[in-house]
Amino acid sequence: MPKHELPALPYPYDALEPHYDEATVRIHHDIHHQGYVDGLNKAEDKLAEAREKNDYALIKHWEKELAFHGSGHILHSLFWLGMKPQGGGEPGGRLKQQIEKDFGSFAAFKAQFTAATVGVEGSGWGILVWSPMFKQLQVMQAEKHQNLAQWGVIPLLVCDVWEHAYYLKYQNKRAAFVEAWWNLVNWGWVEQKLNGLA
Ligand code: MN
Fold first, then answer.
1. Which position has the higher pLDDT, 196 or 32?
2. From ligand 1's centre to the CA of 124, what distance in Å?
3. How far is the CA of 54 from the centre of ligand 1 (A)?
4. pTM (2 decimals)?
5. By three-state DSSP, how is residue 163 classified?
């Protein structure tokens, strides 16, 4: 089974300054994200071992690890790609149209995404998803990485609000971090993803 690997950052560690500080980005990517990659590989190895031995005594544990670390790896990969130096502003094209169709306006979408993200209970994420079944964009909160998801949706843009994502620079001010994060959004990349789906 191919091992999962930590994707390289698509920009230098300090490229998102001043909105996202170098020290946090470095720890977040090299330590935290790597941890999810390692955890996912371990869960897959342990499940392969269980199949070989036909021993499923720890099946609940390893399935939980698979969901937790797999979701963590996916969401962090999207998190890095969803930002860029000199990002922010507003989306254009197809993404703008779809946002206006599903949320009324960009301002309304941004307000809902911000409120959902700041309001995550405990650790988690604000996530813009595309639902192939409903053919619409939705905003979701995820608790941890995997709870409160909706089956079948495809995450497009994600904002990490685990404390490790902002505490070094923003301490308890999660809302200030989310506000700064809007200045980094790579709308072109998000639109490209949507174009491949919708
Ligand atoms: Mn994180």
1. 32
2. 8
3. 34
4. 0.88
5. helix
